[in-house]
Design goal:
By secondary structure, this protein is mainly α. The protein contains two helices and no strands. The longest helix is centred in the middle third of the chain and has 55 residues.
Length: about 110
């Protein structure tokens, strides 16, 4: 398996997660509207769970949006760490390269 993470991978993922964050509320409302015809078709525990879902739909939406928000924040943090790591690696490589002594190296072979 080959994995390549480019500089744009995390920002792209973060943008897609942000879009999902915005969509989740309308998707839950659509779900509630689509199951409305089932109202009154459940008995017992099924009825109780159906009513609980309807009554808690707003809180479920908020909880899911908060979860997506946390994921988005985490992705932004990972991206910043990735960028900082890349910058540090470049700085360290340039520092090591500048301090290297090539005067005794034999680049022509023995």
């Amino acid at each position: 398996m080959y994995f390549k993470m480019t500089d744009g991978a995390l920002p792209t993922l973060n943008k897609q997660t942000g879009a999902s964050h915005e969509d989740i509320g309308s998707l839950i409302k659509d779900l509630i509207a689509s199951v409305a015809p089932l109202e009154g078709k459940f008995d017992g525990e099924g009825y109780v769970q159906f009513q609980n879902f309807k009554m808690n739909a707003d809180q479920i939406t908020v909880d899911l949006q908060n979860a997506f928000g946390s994921v988005t924040e985490g992705q932004a943090g990972m991206n910043q760490a990735f960028l900082n790591g890349t910058d540090e690696m470049v700085t360290n490589a340039r520092t090591a390269e500048g301090g290297a002594d090539y005067s005794t190296a034999n680049f022509h072979g023995a």
